[in-house]
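Hi U.,

Before I forget, here's the chain from the pilot set. I'm dumping it here mostly so it's searchable later in email.
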Amino acid sequence: MSPSSPVPTPADPARTNVSATYTNSKFTSSSSSQTSTAPFTISTPLALPGSDSTTHKTAYLSSLRNAVSALQERVNSELTARMEEEARELAATSTAPTTSRKAGQVAAAGSVDEAAEEENYGEEVIEDEEA
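Structure:
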């Protein structure tokens, strides 16, 4: 996800939009699960400071902080929904039990090892090849 800098909108130079764009390196146009890896952008309007006064700048920074927090919540909600959908798709297509090598636990067919997911949240997981 890459946040973009506030840019004044042509229609109203006193307002701008703050946006966040999520992209996934695994997204391809031929991907079977388009929705879970498709990029998306979320934006929210933001009023620019009325002047260079400290009061206006402070109010602007406060509204910017709130806008970024709101964007973060929306991105997290979208990604959580996508993860849940992906888990449901996996559960529907899986027939054999899977083994979590890292945790050494056998998970039910199609279920997600929640502990491993939580531990690796936001990290790229590279599976070790067995010798």
